[in-house]
Amino acid sequence: MSNTKVLPLLEPESDAVVPCCPPLTERPFTAEEADTAARMFKALGDPVRLRLFSAVASHEGGEACVCDISDVGVSQPTVSHHLKKLKEAGLLTSERRGTWVYYRVEPSVLAAMGRLLTVAPAAG
Question: What is the mean pLDDT of residues 81-106?
Fold first, then answer.
């Protein structure tokens, strides 16, 4: 039996993002981990969402105002819908400042996604 603690993607009392899953090569996913990882990758499976996620992640300081990233070829309500889906998947956090909303990709999300797909070198 493993002593690995399964962490939720979002902590209930905050908007802080925590890593979702162990690397694929570490052990089989639990049903909850598989659901969480699938939700994250499904959200990134849409080209507009992937562009928005990339725009936020690559923006100076890892944070972007919605006013700076909304030029992705769809209307503003559609941009808002896609940003909401990315937040629901645990990929973005946001903060309202005055009339604008700023989005951030938490470094832990990028690290967890990279770790998830990392293959450990073969022993030998």
Answer: 92
